[in-house]
C-alpha cells in the first residue's frame, strides 16, 4: 500500500486568532478559507509540503453531536485537553524562541525526553496542544 497523511483536523473557535498563530507565527500557508452558515474552516500547511494540511474547523459542528457533547468539547478545549498535533523542525531552539517572542502560550520549554527526542510544547489560541520536536 502507498498511504500518506493528507490532513489532520484541529478545532478553532476564533478564525482570526488561528490565522495569527498558524500563518503569522508558524509561517504556514493558507490553502483554503471557507465560510458557511456563519462559521469558518481554514486549511493551512507548511510551505513546500502541498500534500500535508491542517484543517482548522469550528468545534462541535459534526452531525449527531448533542448539545451536551458540544459543551464538553468547549470545556476540554478551554483546558487544552481536547486535541493536539505533533510537528517537527530542524532547529527547535530557534522555533521555540520565535514562539515565545510571539506570545504563544508556553507549556514546556525545549527538553530532552527520556524516549530519545528533544521537544517543546505550546498551546494554540483554541487550547490545542502543539508539540514540536527537533527533526533528526
UniProtKB/TrEMBL annotation:
The VOC domain, residue ranges: 4-135
InterPro entries hit by this protein: Glyas_Bleomycin-R_OHBP_Dase (IPR029068), Glyas_Fos-R_dOase_dom (IPR004360), VOC_core (IPR037523)
Database matches in PROSITE patterns: VOC
CDD domains in UniProt: VOC_like
Signal peptide positions on this chain: none
Record-given protein name: VOC family protein
Species name: Saccharopolyspora endophytica
Amino acid at each position: 500500500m502507498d498511504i500518506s497523511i493528507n490532513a489532520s483536523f484541529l478545532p478553532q473557535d476564533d478564525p482570526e486568532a488561528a490565522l495569527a498563530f498558524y500563518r503569522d507565527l508558524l509561517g504556514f500557508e493558507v490553502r483554503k478559507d471557507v465560510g458557511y452558515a456563519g462559521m469558518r474552516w481554514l486549511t493551512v500547511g507548511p510551505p513546500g509540503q502541498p500534500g500535508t494540511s491542517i484543517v482548522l474547523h469550528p468545534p462541535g459542528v459534526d452531525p449527531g453531536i448533542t448539545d451536551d457533547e458540544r459543551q464538553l468539547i468547549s470545556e476540554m478545549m478551554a483546558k487544552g485537553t481536547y486535541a493536539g498535533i505533533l510537528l517537527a523542525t530542524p532547529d527547535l531552539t530557534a522555533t521555540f524562541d520565535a514562539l515565545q517572542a510571539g506570545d504563544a502560550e508556553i507549556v514546556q520549554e525545549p527538553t530532552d525526553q527520556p524516549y530519545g527526542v528533544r521537544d517543546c510544547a505550546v498551546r494554540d489560541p483554541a487550547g490545542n496542544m502543539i508539540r514540536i520536536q527537533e527533526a533528526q
